[in-house]
Design brief:
The chain is mainly β. It is built from no helices and 11 strands.
């Protein structure tokens, strides 16, 4: 069964950086799009950035400039580099993926907490 396992979250001071990782496993199908979403307390989950299997990226307006998404297709791993962290970046960050051959199915990681102190 498909598993998405995130790592790299934590507590960081404003202005610092973090790199989140998410490894996908458990499917014989090829990973299609991968991405990161976040959910702050009392807010809806929102897209941060996504990346296709061909490396085409898409960023939320709030993520342009400080966030960088990348992936390693051999390792089925997606990364999110976050620089110049702000307290408003505090949220649970969720990895997302879908697969070729499994259209209509969406997979999520368990989430990793990012807390930015001022």
């Amino acid at each position: 069964q498909v598993q998405l396992v995130e790592s790299g979250g934590g507590l960081v001071q404003a202005g610092g950086s973090l790199r989140l990782s998410c490894a996908a496993s458990g499917s014989r199908f090829r990973v299609n799009d991968m991405g990161w979403y976040r959910q702050a307390p009392e807010k809806q989950r929102e897209l941060v950035a996504s990346i296709s299997s061909a490396g085409i990226t898409n960023y939320a307006d709030s993520a342009k400039g400080r966030f960088a998404i990348s992936r390693d297709n051999i390792k089925n791993t997606v990364y999110l580099q976050i620089n110049s962290l702000k307290p408003e970046d505090t949220a649970v960050y969720y990895c997302h993926a879908n697969y070729y051959g499994l259209e209509g199915l969406e997979y999520w990681g368990q989430g990793t907490q990012v807390t930015v102190s001022s």
